[in-house]
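Box 3.1 A note on notation
Throughout this textbook, protein chains are presented in two layers. The first layer is the amino acid sequence; the second is a token string describing backbone geometry. Keep the layers aligned when reading.
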Amino acid sequence: MSNPLLEKSQHPHGAFPFDKIKPEHFVPALKAAIETAKNQLELYKKDNSTNFHDVMVKLDDITEKVSSIHNIFENLHSAECPEELDKVSEEVSTLSTSFSNDISLDADIFRRVKACYDSRDQQLLTPEERRIIEKSYTDFKRNGALLSDDKKEQMRKIDEELAQLALTFSQNVLKATNAYLLEITDPKDLDGLPDSFIEAAAELAEKKDKKGSWCVSLQAPMLIPFLTYAKNRELRKKIFISHSSKCFNDQFDNQEIIKKTLKLRHERAQLLGYKTHAQYILEERMAESPDKVTDFL
């Protein structure tokens, strides 16, 4: 059976054929793309060229298919995730995270990136190419390339657990968003809302077996217009609080996930030699350090 995720797109600009992609396509496509990439990486690691094209462009070409499949999945999963797609999300996340770690923690791949980085002044690179190699070298370091083997293994375990926590967190947010419904039965409560919104609310109500009323969800295309135009202040307050308190003390509670995530981020930062996760994150931001942020505040 053909898999659209592994075929070259026939659409303009290489657009993905979303109408042909099904949940069952993702895991086989990702496994096939990873296997192909790993085979190509074995040859890549044997090459000693420090040329930008041979190092950075080839590495990007090798990993491009895996990245595109993962990005398509993330795009669909973060929008309106059907149950069939959600079922494969854990395996997709595990495969993608493992492959990413295989790249960032591989000593031979980093050796080539570092060699290209060290020779950047002699290569007559364009400003864009120079930025790419400098950013890539920094990213490898920030993802554990300079760690000892035992600490690399710790990093791998932390990253895998963080990926799983992030997936569960986003699943809970999506489920909480999809579960909420504000039903309106009094036409007066629609005052201020555009006709197009009222029509969409009626269609949603019919879809939810509440024909004759109007329903508002927490999805952005309904939430934002309702908060912007509805004249009923109490209903605006109600849906705003519901949106702001998703996954807090409800069936999709994310509090423990947040605590575990913070703990692991702190461990990861310290493993890399940073005092805190904030110091790790801000290093590449305009603020540069937690102290500067505190002073600014």
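Residues 11 and 17 are 7 Å apart (CA to CA). The mean pLDDT is 94.
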